Amino acid sequence: MTVDDLLVIHQITQLKYRYMRAVDTQDWELLRTVFTANARAWYDNGALAAEGRDGIVAMLSGSLRPTLYSSHTALHPEITLTGPGTAKGVWRFEDIVHFAQSDPEFVVEAQDGERLIGAGYYYDEYALEDGDWRIANTGYVRLFQARERQPLQAEFEPARGRLARRA
Amino acid sequence: MTVDDLLVIHQITQLKYRYMRAVDTQDWELLRTVFTANARAWYDNGALAAEGRDGIVAMLSGSLRPTLYSSHTALHPEITLTGPGTAKGVWRFEDIVHFAQSDPEFVVEAQDGERLIGAGYYYDEYALEDGDWRIANTGYVRLFQARERQPLQAEFEPARGRLARRA
Amino acid sequence: MTVDDLLVIHQITQLKYRYMRAVDTQDWELLRTVFTANARAWYDNGALAAEGRDGIVAMLSGSLRPTLYSSHTALHPEITLTGPGTAKGVWRFEDIVHFAQSDPEFVVEAQDGERLIGAGYYYDEYALEDGDWRIANTGYVRLFQARERQPLQAEFEPARGRLARRA
What we know:
6-stranded mixed β-sheet; 7 strands; 3 helices; globular; homotrimer; alpha+beta; about 25% helix
C-alpha cells in the first residue's frame, strides 16, 4: 500500500459522495457525471436494474420522484485497487425515504406519510474514463428494510439540501 | 491533488469530528476550541444563527439542554482547499434528538418523549488560526425533519458517551 | 503528522470496517481475524464483556442470533498513534437492531417485531500482531438507546448483505 494508492482511494470516495449527493438532492445533471458510458446498476437486490449512463439516470430520476425525500448514506469504505485504472469497493449504506404523497409505483408501494428505513451493502466497481474515476458497476444487497406507517409529522425542505436553492 | 493536501484534509476531518463530539457529549469547553474567534454559524436554515466563538457556544449550549439527548453524524466529506490556510467543505448529516422532558424553547417545540429525526447538508468554511484548523463558518440546509410522537421507551446514559464520566 | 501516519490510520479504519461488516453479516470466521489473541471487549457499558479472541467471538455469536437483523455504523474516527505498533481510537456509532422473533436473552429483553435504536462512542485500542493491525480492546459508552414497540412491517434479506449468498 503506497501513498499513490491513498490518493486514488480518496478520489474514489469523492466520486461516491458526489453520487450520493446527486441522488438525495435529485440533481440529475450531476448524477450523469459519475457513471461510465456503459455502467451497470442493480439496486434493491436487482429489483431496479439498468445499463448505460442514460438508462441508469432515467431509472433513478423516474423512481426518485419529487414527492419523496430520501437520505442515503454510504459508510465503511473498503476499496481495493484491482489494476491500472480499475478498482472495486464495498460500502455499508443506510437509507431513509419519506413519502410526502402516495407513490404506488415505487419499488415497494408507498402511502402518503409512510417512511422506509433500510440498510445493506453496496458492491461497486470503478474505472478511470475520460480522465476521471467513475462508477462502472453498482448495486446492493440489503440487510433489511422496514416500512413505518404510524402517522409522521414531517417537514420537507423545498431546497432539498441545496445551498443554491436556498432563497 | 498532493499528499500535503491529503494531510490537510485529514486535519479538517478531525476538526469536524471534534466539533460533532463536543455537541453530542455537550462538552462546551471542547466546543470553544473548534471555532475561529470571528466564526459564524447558521443552523436549521438560519433559524439558529450566531456570530463569534462566544456567541456560537452560548447559542448551542443554551439550545442543547441537559434534558435532550442528541446524535448528530457527519458523513460524505467533500473538502476543497481554497487558498493558503483556507478551505471549504460540504458534508451530509443526520440528526436524532430525544427529549427526556418537554422543551418548549427548542427550535421546534418538543414534548416529553418525542424524537426528531432529520437530514441535510452542512456548508462549512475552515481557516488556519493560531496554528490549528478551525471552523470559520458553518450552517446547514435540511432535506427533511420528522417529529415522532409515539411513546418511545428510551434509556438515557448519564455519562452521555464520555468515557471519563463512566464510573 | 506524516504520510506514514496516514497510511497506518487507513489500515486501522479498514480493520474497523471489517469488524463492523463481520458483526452485521454475522460472519464469525471474519470476526476472528480482527482481534488480538488477548483482546478485551466491553459492550453496552460493560453489560456484555469478554476476554480473549475466542471468548469475544463466542459472546458476540451467542448474542447476535440469526433471528435478529442489526445495523451497526462507525463514524467520526479520531485515531491516535500511541507508539510503535499501538494506537487508540474514538468512534461515534449508531445501532439499529430488528427482532424477527422474541429474544428474551438479548441484552435488553426483546419482543418479536421490536426495534432498538441507539448511539454512543467506541473507545478502542489497536495493536500490530502477526503483521496485521488488530483490535486489542474495544467497548462503548452509550448516549441513548430507544426501544420501539409499534408494529413494524419489516422485510429481512436472507443474504444478510452478503453478495456471495445472493443466489
